[in-house]
């Protein structure tokens, strides 16, 4: 299931519906985001790669 992990800027009032509507306007229907998770920061390795395993843990799986 497509899921977005979003880091909000300070003072932002962005919500799940805003993110899903934005993505829906850009991608094919089967690629639409179904869940949005707001995180404090995207975990990265020393080389700068996104640590997907840690994101999955933060996403409730």
Automatic annotation (TrEMBL):
Keyword Ligase in annotation: yes
Alphabetized Gene3D superfamilies for the sequence: 3.30.300.30
Keywords: Ligase
Domain AMP-binding enzyme C-terminal residues, every copy: 2-49
Keyword Glycoprotein on entry: no
InterPro entries referenced in this protein's UniProt entry, alphabetically: AMP-bd_C, AMP-bd_C_sf
Any one GO molecular function term: ligase activity
Alphabetized SUPFAM superfamilies for the sequence: Acetyl-CoA synthetase-like (SSF56801)
Pfam family, one: AMP-binding_C
Family from the record: Belongs to the ATP-dependent AMP-binding enzyme family.
Protein name as catalogued: Acyl-CoA synthetase (AMP-forming)/AMP-acid ligase II
Organism of this sequence: Nonomuraea angiospora
């Amino acid at each position: 299931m497509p899921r977005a992990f979003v880091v909000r800027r300070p003072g932002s009032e962005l919500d799940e519906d805003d993110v899903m509507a934005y993505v829906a306007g850009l991608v094919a229907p089967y690629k639409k985001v179904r869940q949005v998770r707001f995180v404090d920061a995207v975990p990265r390795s020393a080389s700068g790669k996104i640590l997907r395993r840690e994101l999955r843990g933060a996403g409730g799986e």
